[in-house]
Specification:
Elements lengths: L15 H23 L3 H22 L5 E7 L2 E6 L2 E2 L16 E2 L5 E2 L5 E5 L5 E2 L12 E7 L2 E7 L8
Antiparallel strand pairs: 1-2, 1-6, 2-3, 2-4, 5-8, 6-7, 8-9
Length: 165
């Protein structure tokens, strides 16, 4: 008969303190890496979201009024609120400071790289329409592209519905 020793305990593996220390070090490294990667393109994302909000604002105003509202992009660095195919200096874009004059000017690092000189109008149903009289709903998607260096962001206006994802 073999005798089992009660004092023999297997001491292989890691202690709880060693595991906690490794997890803390890994967390610090992960936070550092994530913070370095997320800072690029913040202005581009913010300006794309601001332009989306402005388009949705014009769309909402058109649905509450009997005339088309829209956003006009005269150049690569700004856009302006349009009412009935004209600049409405009495109306401000959402998020603009009180007393801020039209147009909304983009930061120097962000530019609109497509569709400059275009007006995006909406009718009383919120549909994207042309600038003619009477306005006719557009049958193709409208895309606006913004860029900051090599990074780009696209905004698409869906035909017939005016949905802006």
């Amino acid at each position: 008969m073999t005798r089992i020793r009660q004092n023999s305990i297997n001491h292989s593996g890691f202690t709880l303190i060693e595991l906690v220390i490794v997890l803390i070090v890994m967390s610090i490294v992960a936070v550092f890496i994530a913070s370095r990667a997320s800072t690029s393109g913040n202005e581009l994302i913010a300006e794309a979201d601001t332009l989306k909000s402005s388009l949705r604002y014009a769309q909402t105003r058109a649905m509450n009024d009997s005339v088309p509202w829209g956003i006009h992009i005269p150049d690569a660095s700004s856009y302006v609120l349009y009412r009935n195919n004209e600049v409405d200096t009495n109306q401000m874009l959402p998020g603009e400071k009180t007393g801020a004059a039209q147009p909304h000017t983009l930061p120097s690092t962000v530019t609109i790289t497509s569709r400059t000189g275009t007006t995006y109008n909406f009718d009383e149903w919120g549909r994207p329409v042309n600038t003619g009289i009477p306005p006719v709903p557009l049958a193709t998607a409208q895309t606006i592209t913004l860029s900051e260096g090599v990074a780009t962001a696209s905004i698409t206006i869906t035909p017939n519905t005016g949905y802006i994802p």
